[in-house]
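Hey, quick one: can you model this chain's 3D structure?
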Amino acid sequence: MATSVPYEEHPELAARFPELHPALTAQHAVMEANRCLNCFDAPCTAACPTHIDVPRFIKKIATHNLRGAAVSILEANVLAASCARVCPVEVLCEGACVLHHQQQEPIAIGRLQRFAMDTFYAAGGRIPQRKATARSQSVACIGGGPASLACAAELRQQGFAVTIYERRALPGGLNSYGVAQYKLRTADSLREIEQIRALGVTFATREIATEADLKELESSYDAIFLGVGLGAMHKLGIAGDGAPCLVDALEFIESYKLGRREDVGSHVVVIGAGNTAIDAAIAARRLGAQTVSVLYRRGPQQVSAFDFEIEHARHEGVTFLWGTLPIAIHHAPEDERTTLECTRVEVNRHGDFVLTADSNFTLECDLIIPAIGQSPLLTFLQRVRGLQIEKGRVVIDRASGQTTHPRYFAGGDCVNGGREVVDAVADGKRAACGIAAALGTAKEASHG
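Sure thing. Here's the predicted structure for all 448 residues.
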């Protein structure tokens, strides 16, 4: 399906970033589907944040009902094609598969889900439009990431008018800009967005940033969903932090996905050991770096990245330096040489970091990529009067997504601090149902 936003994939991306998990063939998909035991209690479904009925869609694949499989998946997750590619299925649905107890490989649920969705879309399939009475109320979603997309799609299915406000040219949030290319291509993210646009969701390219902007939305819409995600990456806070070779991980991933960066030099250092850091490190290797070193101040047992991501990075040739802390960046403009000064650290019994004496060393680097987490959008969020924020996160009622301001609902990273795409989708859909219930109650009260 043609996208309504300008985007053209850089011609070298496909060659440099082949997909991590190639698509199943039709024959292999049916064979894999027939391995499923169709568990009655379906722990795989319980482990999925969006609660896709996994046995149901897999059984439909096994009986060659691919449209039925895709429709079944879409009932639970409108971004199912993206989630099939980026979800850490090893610790979610596939991690819960009962075949683990029989010392067998779990069902390849993620790849089967992708097979069903890709086949459906390739055949011209669209998200089925539910029959719903048109509602007079309208809702604004701030931010164009997975949470807002899921919220908007569900609200449209219930008859509400919805507009998504996104400051960037391409909607999709991290799906379009910040997920490693070998996991999710920007084109695949935009394909799903066009499906949501076809439901009747309106997209507006506009930044909502000031109190005046918020007041304008409040006067124009009956409810507002905050799907704003997180803000800028944290700074290193060390000497030389402004060196020209410094680029944060999300900016780095975006730059190569959009074709703005092809050369990373010979030596790259990534600081941090979360999943985004691993994505950046692997990308640097695939873009031609001879050495890629990941620095982390703790040990391998304390990383936030999944074990399988660490192993993948090692397989790609990434080196890990545990118990290592960067302390200064030294840049010599005359010969354009940059080194990163580091030191070894240990954690004492009180949990404090202790520098190891005489352990300083330097790493030559052409590119330094900090990936030490994103800051919350506190300045913006504090402009919403009556909105409660705790530890940088928007406080919501978990059942409805409603904030302490009755007209505002929220979901995604601004609520959970930065979890998986599928968690954001679940948040958005839950909030949409909360909004629909609240507006329905308000309508009844006005007619009472």
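One thing worth noting: The CA atoms of residues 227 and 300 lie 32 Å apart.
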